[in-house]
Design goal:
Blueprint: H1 12-21, E1 28-31, H2 33-40, E2 47-51, H3 56-66, E3 69-72, E4 77-80, E5 83-86, E6 89-93, E7 101-105, H4 109-113, E8 124-126, E9 132-133, H5 138-144, E10 146-147, H6 152-156, H7 160-172, E11 175-176, H8 178-184, H9 194-205, H10 210-219, H11 222-227, H12 233-247, H13 255-263, H14 268-274, H15 296-303, H16 317-326, H17 339-344, H18 350-370
Parallel strand pairs: 2-5, 10-11
Antiparallel strand pairs: 1-2, 1-8, 3-4, 4-5, 6-7, 8-9
Helix pairs in contact: 7-9, 7-10, 10-12, 12-13, 15-18
């Protein structure tokens, strides 16, 4: 068996879990994302442990004894400190809702692993001795940086897995296996709730390799379904290049929506509303987009509202150089205008705002002349 030195195996809280479970079993495994992230060298904050050789009734009593909170008791899952402890299970889809599953206790590691979405998420590490179980060759797929589904029927039972594949590809820079991609093309996401879709998109928006995820959104015809966007191949290529370059400089989770709406002239307000992101991305509508070269005075206007390093449009080396040269990369251009004097000079209502903008414009022009 393979062994690997995961720091989590020396975790003090994990030692407590070992002490709790050791009288009853020697088969308890770290599973899922925390194991995958360990192989990828990524720090994980959520830890799932699958416990074998303990029947559900006994397991429930043990969890009650230590004060673990049942967060999915119908799925045999309990929360204890930073760990989710659960029993191995199989699942059968019974309806269209994501909660429509029959769940059955299963004490076999191979059988239990089939319910998982991708091979990279099915690797198991024994918390007692560090032994690794990899029924589905997930370690090799991590090395090859490829996403492969495990079981055709199980994969199709939850359409959300289509979006999970996309956000995984964007987060880890993985390609999706051809057979998996072909299977994904047969799955509709129409019955997914808006909240579930947006939850996966948020993980995508934070990803490093946005251009890879965008490729799969395009390939699976999901741009129309999710963003109401139809594009030609040349537009896809051009936008992908801009997205890939821009991500090197802009790490903000709003960048994808900013660039998508700006480049394709989409209504940002409508799109955010459709995705239930109006509050979370409230400031996005204030972020100005320029298709071509931006003039110094245009960039200075942006700097009056925020430091230029906070502007999502600063996604090219040329614009970054331009912003630093103007001197407002880290600090905003703070313009003070005496509104009382404007009012004393007889301006009223809309005229006041117009005069303020006129004065601002003159200050910006003078600044550029004198620098």
């Amino acid at each position: 068996m393979l062994k690997i030195d995961f720091k989590i195996l020396q975790n003090k809280q994990l030692k407590e879990i070992k002490d709790i479970l050791s009288p009853y079993t020697k088969r308890a495994y770290l599973v899922g994302g925390c194991v995958r992230d360990g192989f990828l060298g990524i720090k994980s904050s959520d830890f799932d442990i699958e416990v074998y050789d303990i029947l559900p009734e006994k397991f429930e009593k043990i969890m009650q004894k230590i004060g673990a909170k049942g967060v999915g008791k119908s799925y045999f899952i309990y929360k204890y400190k930073e760990f989710d402890l659960g029993l191995p299970r199989t699942e059968n889809k019974t309806g269209l809702k994501h909660t429509d599953f029959d769940v059955f206790y299963c004490n076999d590691t191979k059988q239990a692993s089939i319910r998982r979405d991708f091979t990279i998420n099915s690797i198991m590490i024994n918390i007692f001795n560090g032994d690794i179980i990899d029924h589905n060759n997930g370690i090799n797929d991590i090395k090859k940086r490829v996403l492969k589904h495990i079981d055709n029927d199980k994969f199709c039972e939850d359409p959300l897995r289509v979006l999970r594949a996309i956000q995984f590809s964007a987060r880890f820079g993985f390609r999706i296996d051809g057979d998996t991609l072909n299977l994904m093309k047969t799955i509709s996401i129409k019955n997914l709730s808006k909240d579930r879709i947006t939850a996966e998109l948020m993980k995508f928006f934070k990803a490093e390799f946005l251009h890879i995820g965008f490729y799969y959104l395009y390939e699976l015809n999901l741009l129309k379904e999710i963003f109401n966007l139809s594009i030609k191949n040349n537009e896809f290529i051009s936008f992908s290049r801009k997205l890939k370059q821009g991500r090197k400089f802009i790490k903000d989770e709003q960048f994808f929506i900013y660039l998508l709406c700006g480049y394709f002239n989409l209504d940002t307000k409508v799109l955010l509303s459709n995705l239930n992101l109006s509050k979370k991305f409230a400031n996005l509508q204030k972020q100005k987009y320029f298709h071509k070269k931006i003039k110094d005075i245009q960039m200075l206007k942006i700097a009056t509202d925020q430091p230029l390093n906070k502007w999502l449009g600063l996604y090219t080396p040329q614009r970054i150089k331009q912003a630093k040269k103007l001197g407002f990369f880290d600090n905003k251009f703070d313009i003070k205008i005496d509104v009382d004097t404007i009012i004393k000079n007889g301006f009223e209502k809309e005229e006041i705002a117009q005069e303020i903008q006129k004065i601002k414009q003159k200050i910006l022009i003078d600044f550029l002349k004198n620098r």
